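--- STAGE predict ---
source: upstream dedup step, 1 unique chain passed
mode: sequence only
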Amino acid sequence: MTRQGRFMNISDLVNIIEAVALIYFAYQQNQIFRHQNQILATQGGQPAMLSNGSRLLWLRRYWPTMMMVFVILLVGFDIYDRHHGFGYDPERAWDDSKPLERVYRHTFENETVVLDNKHLVGPNKFDNVTIIYNGLGPFAVDDPKLGIT
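--- STAGE serialize ---
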């Protein structure tokens, strides 16, 4: 389950579809190349594939497949990482579970005002302040006519 309570989002689904399509089309392309090699070998009078069992020949033949498998594993880890919270900081997460802190007709002077999880009620006055919204929780303003000086 994800932190949001969903198993998978649309981006994950698209990544999975892309990976499956990539495997399918790579397989089809490999079949086309194999068939073309057989045709060319038959026309040239040589066997289609060399029977040399060396590691270098094997590596030259299959390195694209190994790279494709590596990329698929990276996509899988990316999906896993997004759903298992590596680097997830619960202190920096959106929190709307607790009630908003109510601020009634207050005058803010020479300070920094953080709006996260605050409910500004009534006309508030802001004098030489820095207003910050971190996006970590909701906020509400009942009187949209804020006195800003």
